Hints:
This protein is mostly helical. The chain contains three helices and no strands. The protein has a domain at 11-88. The chain has helices at 2-31, 37-90, 100-109. It starts with a helix and ends in an 18-residue tail after the last helix.
Amino acid sequence: MELIADMLLAAGAFGVAVYCFVLSRRLTRFTQLETGMGGAIAVLSAQVDDMTRALIKAQAAAGDSTAELAVLTVRGEAAAARLELLVASLHDLPDSTEPLETQGQDLADRRMRFVRRRPARGEEAAE
């Protein structure tokens, strides 16, 4: 009986040794940096770093675009205000329903004069 127990114990120890050997080989292949899972993790880590840098650049570009868009919006609102003033000033013009002869006489009666003067040497010219 002891002989059978010793043989079973030796077979079990041999089986565990084979299992440990196979597990050791698999673990070695799993952690190799070039071909195993360690290599895949290293590649993914490098990709995450690249994506982080790209994200930072994209955020900076978006911030610049936002600032430029804000400036353009302010300019557009100013232009819209000027256009509203111009349209409002068009209401002050005479109607064009009058005959052309009458318009010509009115224009002849109301001669417009433009006076231009050169700025003095010390003055700056207006824009």
